[in-house]
């Protein structure tokens, strides 16, 4: 019915049972400017390979779901200005229209699950936007975590969001939120949000077991692994908070799918690029942990 195409190395990994880590593409097309987006995408793929797993960057190209991109496809996507931002609501429509689009966390989870990939690394998930009591703007990523069995490694939720409300919604939806290596819930560019994380695990093998236990219990959905940005790369809370407040002010009136990309772009300008450097560092860190979890999952399979 729909076409799903595997990159050469992902097809090989599927044949041999090698660990695979999914990666999203919205971060490439809507989250970072060219050419740093391409450098980031390549680096992250190499980090996963160096950690003993195979990267599968997921995107929709001309109506075909790609699980893993060949180098030329990645280069083209990184420069495409007209790519759609595809979430759960528009994925099927994009396939029907033969469109090209990047997949958000939600759409990447859907495609990864269809391809039998259990682990996915990204920067930060979407969540409850500030002022959601008025705008009702809540990312579809949260619902997806509640229903699609993929473990998502992120540096928490982006600090542009309302983090307490994001954690509340995740709790309501029954999504395990597991901080890695610390007690607090990380805030994307900073290690601490000031909020405690509901769960903590320091061992990738334990995170892999929790993933398997959830399936064994017959529970739908995945888990969110909240992995703090490395200390050397973090932006102090008070510094980033100033830029976030300014960006929220400057982007007032922006709605729906445009909110997150516009806020990220404005914070990039205000921080003179520092936010992007930190963003790249945290994605790479998440890719490494994702690879460790994927490796543990493969070795745990009887
Ligand atoms: N992580 C990043 N940068 C990003 C994203 C994640 O470091 O741009 C993307 C993901 O694709 C996520 C999306 O799903 O931001 C959230 O968008 P929204 O708030 O519109 O759901």
TrEMBL record:
Catalyses which reaction(s): D-ribose 5-phosphate + uracil = psi-UMP + H2O
Binding site residues for substrate: 85, 105, 139-141
Binding, Mn(2+): 137
Record keywords: Glycosidase, Hydrolase, Lyase, Manganese, Metal-binding
Pfam families associated with the record: Indigoidine_A (PF04227)
Entry superkingdom: Bacteria
Active site per database record: 24, 158
UniProt EC number: 4.2.1.70
Note accompanying the cofactor annotation: Binds 1 Mn(2+) ion per subunit.
Keyword Zinc-finger: no
Alphabetized InterPro entries for the sequence: Indigdn_synthA-like, PsuG
Cofactor requirements of the protein: Mn(2+)
GO molecular function, one term: hydrolase activity, acting on glycosyl bonds
SUPFAM superfamilies for the chain: Indigoidine synthase A-like
Quaternary structure, from the entry: Homotrimer.
Entry function: Catalyzes the reversible cleavage of pseudouridine 5'-phosphate (PsiMP) to ribose 5-phosphate and uracil. Functions biologically in the cleavage direction, as part of a pseudouridine degradation pathway.
Family: Belongs to the pseudouridine-5'-phosphate glycosidase family.
Protein name, UniProt field: Pseudouridine-5'-phosphate glycosidase
Source species of the chain: Roseinatronobacter domitianus
């Amino acid at each position: 019915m729909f076409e799903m195409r595997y990159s050469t190395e992902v097809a090989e990994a599927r044949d041999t049972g090698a660990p695979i880590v999914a990666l999203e593409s919205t971060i490439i097309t809507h989250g970072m400017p060219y050419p740093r987006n391409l450098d980031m995408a390549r680096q992250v793929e190499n980090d996963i390979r160096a950690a003993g797993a195979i990267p599968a960057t997921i995107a929709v190209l001309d109506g075909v779901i790609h699980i893993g991109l060949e180098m030329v496809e990645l280069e083209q996507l990184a420069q495409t200005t007209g790519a759609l931002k595809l979430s759960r609501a528009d994925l099927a429509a994009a396939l029907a229209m033969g469109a090209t689009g990047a997949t958000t966390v939600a759409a990447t989870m859907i495609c990864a699950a269809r391809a039998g990939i259990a682990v996915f690394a990204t920067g930060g998930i979407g969540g409850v936007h500030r002022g959601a009591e008025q705008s009702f703007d809540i990312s579809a990523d949260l619902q997806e975590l509640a229903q699609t069995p993929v473990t998502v490694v992120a540096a928490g939720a982006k600090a542009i969001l309302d983090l307490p409300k994001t954690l509340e919604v995740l709790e309501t939806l029954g999504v395990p939120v597991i901080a890695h290596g610390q007690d607090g819930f990380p805030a994307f560019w900073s290690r601490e949000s000031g909020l405690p994380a509901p769960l903590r695990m320091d061992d990738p093998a334990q995170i892999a077991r929790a993933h398997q236990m959830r399936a064994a219990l017959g529970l739908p959905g995945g888990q969110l692994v909240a992995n703090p940005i490395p200390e050397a790369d973090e932006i102090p809370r008070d510094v980033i908070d100033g830029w976030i407040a300014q960006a929220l002010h400057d982007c007032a009136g922006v709605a729906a799918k445009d909110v997150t990309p516009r806020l990220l772009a404005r914070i990039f300008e205000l921080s003179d690029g520092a936010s992007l450097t930190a963003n790249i560092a945290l994605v790479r860190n998440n890719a490494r942990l994702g690879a460790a979890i994927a490796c543990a999952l493969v070795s745990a399979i009887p």
